[in-house]
Design brief:
This protein has 266 residues and is α+β, with helices and mostly antiparallel strands. It has helices at residues 4-14, 107-110, 124-132, 139-142, 154-163, 177-200, and strands spanning 22-26, 43-47, 50-54, 59-63, 69-72, 83-87, 92-96, 99-103, 223-228, 233-237. It folds into 2 domains: 4-110, MutM-like, N-terminal (N-terminal domain of MutM-like DNA repair proteins, Alpha-Beta Barrel), CATH 3.20.190.10; 113-237, Helicase, Ruva Protein, domain 3, CATH 1.10.8. The chain is built from 6 helices and 10 strands; from the N terminus they run αββββββββαααααββ. It is elongated and about 65 Å long. GO terms for molecular function: endonuclease activity.
Length: 266
């Protein structure tokens, strides 16, 4: 699933479409595409993992889900777009394997821009208040709460917790004040690092624990859980340098879920 920084890169690539009029809209979405032809694109915006095309009196929200992709001024010959728009000046924008939704209320009413970790309006004090209201939530889940950290995904979560040396099962209420501050600060700072590395095509080279086997700080084999916390997302961490804050030992890890295999037709 693309995380917030990747959507910012998409926004930058698509900003030149602003001001153009939609000539034709098609795709296999169930949304009413007849609303689009004749509409002029006012601006291109993002909120967390949402890509937003603002037409003034309505907007189109694109969520990439797990395997979404896009093409600007070209298209994939082997796939049908979920949403395809042809603009004036021979421009086009195509999305695949994503969720499409129309938003009829003003975007400033629909979104809390202060929750977006990459937005100029980002408000760390508001994030702190929200976290204080969820003391029993483990850090691994808290970082994925889009109402608190819009744009943070699983890669950023794993890397931030390693960067600040906090065990993913630590409850928010057990974090010392300085560590809570570090979590909030690094959720934003790592997102901008992610953005720069993604543009350089070096993101994977900078991963410290995500999808890795050994901690680069101390050489300890990393721990792994495929379905950690209520969010049930993959977690990678080091039991040596990432401290568990709280009484006793970290809770037992959930038992692995059985995997299902699709049987081919005979």
């Amino acid at each position: 699933m693309p995380e917030g920084p990747s959507l910012v890169i998409l926004r930058e690539r698509a900003e030149s479409l602003a001001g153009l009029k939609v000539l034709e809209a098609s795709g296999n979405t169930k949304q009413d595409l007849l609303r689009l032809p004749g509409s002029r694109l006012k601006s291109v915006r993002t909120w967390g993992k949402h890509f937003l095309l603002d037409f003034g009196d309505f907007a189109v929200r694109i969520h990439m889900l797990m395997f979404g992709s896009y093409c600007i001024d070209e298209r994939k010959e082997d796939k049908t777009p979920r949403l395809s728009r042809r603009f004036t000046r021979k421009r086009e924008l195509n999305f695949y394997s994503c969720s499409v939704k129309f938003i009829d209320e003003p975007l400033d009413d629909a979104y809390d821009w202060a929750a977006d970790v990459m937005a100029d309006e980002w408000d760390p004090k508001a994030a702190r208040r929200k976290l204080k209201a969820m003391p029993d939530t483990i850090c691994a889940d808290a970082l994925l709460e889009q109402d608190v950290f819009a744009g943070v995904g699983n890669i950023i979560k794993n890397e931030v917790l390693h960067r600040i040396r906090v065990h993913p099962q630590t409850r928010i209420g057990d974090l010392p004040s300085r560590k809570l501050t570090e979590l909030i600060v690094q959720a934003r700072e790592y997102s901008f690092d992610f953005y720069e590395w993604k543009k350089e095509f070096t993101l994977r080279q900078h991963w410290q624990v995500h999808a890795k086997k050994t901690c680069p700080r101390d050489g300890t084999p990393l721990s792994f859980c495929r379905h950690l916390g209520k969010k049930e997302r993959r977690a990678f961490w080091c039991d040596t340098c990432q401290r568990f804050y709280g009484e006793g030992e970290p809770p037992p890890l959930p038992a692995p879920k059985p995997t299902t295999r699709r049987l081919g037709r005979r």
